[in-house]
Amino acid sequence: MIHEILPVGPLQCNCSVIGDETTREAMVIDPGDDIASVLLLIEKHDLTVKQIVITHAHIDHVGGAMKLRAATGAPILLNQNDYALLKMLDVQAAWIGMKDPGKVEIDNSIGQADTVKAGSLVADVLHTPGHTEGSVCLYFPTESKLIAGDTLFAGSVGRTDLPGGSSEKIIKSLHEKVMTLPDDTLVVPGHGPLTTIGEERESNPFLLRSSWE
Ligand SMILES: [Zn+2]
Fold first, then answer.
1. What is the band of 212 on the pLDDT scale with cuts at 50, 70, 90?
2. Which residues have beta carbons under 5 A from ligand 1 (an ion)?
3. Residue closest to 173 by CA, chosen among 138, 122, 110, 131
4. What is the whole-number distance in angstroms between the Cα of residue 4 and the centre of ligand 1?
5. pTM for this structure?
6. Distance from the alpha carbon of residue 161 to the mean position of ligand 1, in angstroms
7. 39 CA from centroid of ligand 1 (Å)
8. Three-state SS at 2
């Protein structure tokens, strides 16, 4: 498995380029910004991008998707519950002082039990509402790897105070879908350092309580 993790944009969103070493087919997850750098990685590994997968419709994760689609022709996938957030990218841009990336068109919705693919690499889509209604995580069972978006971080969980956020839902998603994965699963969060399910199970303070008051 080829896997490059590139922090992009002012909020340093972890963009993943995942490729099959044999077929050279690839998916790009969360191309929030810095598409020129993402394209250099794709060129370096001689990859063909087949899918652009967005974990949720926050601007730092989706802002560069249209540029990448124009360069690669690959479809953009996002859970339909985040379409409303996608319509307010201009407002989101103003929040963090980023340039409005313009309209982002989604080619297909992805939801629970769907799969996304890059050659022989297959990830199960876990619908994990809480950070946003349409948040998803991508689980590669053969590679024991989880792309967590902003649902789970090393020592923390995604914020739930933005539109569409719910602390009850994120805790439910984490307990019912994310923390059922094996301890040795490598977690690639939407921002910051990598971790494992086992490490978070042991020490993440947000997972040691069943709800927030
Ligand atoms: Zn987010």
1. low
2. 58, 150
3. 131
4. 20
5. 0.96
6. 11
7. 23
8. strand
